[in-house]
């Protein structure tokens, strides 16, 4: 079926279906339907709407509906706080729904949140009359299932990807045309600290592992260190450009996966146009509902699942804050606990938390206690490997005092003395005995953890 065989209307006409009080879902990340968003805001600016609730994962590009100028018109209750809405969320003009990323689809499917209108962006149709959600499947499949009205921006820049995001065009009530390029993200080259973290993480990844990692300089630094590995697989919530060279070299082939063998599984993508072109009609890429990608029990069926995520702060007992700076929302729960738990259940799996030892302002990210108001995204019972540029330690099975000793060993040297004093004040005089006399801690491979916690030269 040709794209021009599908009747389309103007965006301003399409969004007439949105009514005051409706709950509206937006497809996310690089695939946000910006022409429909702009039309919705024009309608709101004209005074035609009140109390419209908007939901989405993080989106790239403008998010004008969150602007204080639309107070009383639009209320953003997002599933993840991206940079484009962070300031407005921190000021209280927008809000955040704490939820595991894998359960966002449940909010719609089980009725915790209504979904009256789904505003999505799709590819042109294939020969069978199906369109694809392209780079962002996430919770949009559930939204399409439940929405009273589904409105789609049909965009020739959206790649046709296979999996759960393939939808019959007949399921969509209204189409508009848009030919704006997808939002792209350019990743900078890792600096010295990020490169050291990448090396320390790569040393923990075994041949035949199934990888999950997030977005940014550290995941790219890890991927750049894997060219000597064999038979790696991908089962993740997202991937970016860094996987392409490893696929081309045969390093990533999915040969060792127990499920979806040979496929790279994700629920959204974010990167360059090269990435979007790469996944177009690529049957080695399987875009799945977020309820599948982030289900720990599905994920853990693969062997050696290695999940690498980041954080804003870790306390001396292993509590991990990844969503807030004190009381201020910074991002969201996301998929960290989904993948940490899935990796820990996997045979030979490893849950890895990777972060610089200090912020750009030289504040230690390993802290005596979390900043008051900070959210505990990953509990200390879920914490396993913690990696900084100074090494890697495994907290799993370690008592609190020994955890403190290990974490101080990979903290920035400028902060170790203060952290040691804090640990002594917290645990009492016996802490110094533990620090001085504890037996060497063995990691999952039977090697002394201390051998992996030497500062980079």
What does this structure look like?
With about 450 residues, this protein is α/β, with parallel strands linked by helices. The chain folds into two domains: about 180 residues, Glutaconate Coenzyme A-transferase; about 260 residues, Acetyl-CoA hydrolase/transferase C-terminal domain (Glutaconate Coenzyme A-transferase), CATH 3.40.1080. Helices cover about 25% and strands about 20% of the residues. The chain is built from 15 helices and 25 strands. Strands 8-16-14-12-11-17-22-24-25 form a nine-stranded mixed beta sheet, sandwiched between helices. Strands 4-3-2-1-5-7-10 form a seven-stranded parallel beta sheet, sandwiched between helices. The chain has a three-stranded mixed beta sheet with strand order 19-18-23, with helices on one face. Strand 1, helix 2 and strand 2 form a beta-alpha-beta unit. Helix 6 packs across helix 7. The longest helix is centred in the last third of the chain and has 15 residues. The radius of gyration is 23 Å and the shape is globular. The N and C termini lie far apart (about 60 Å). The C terminus is likely disordered.
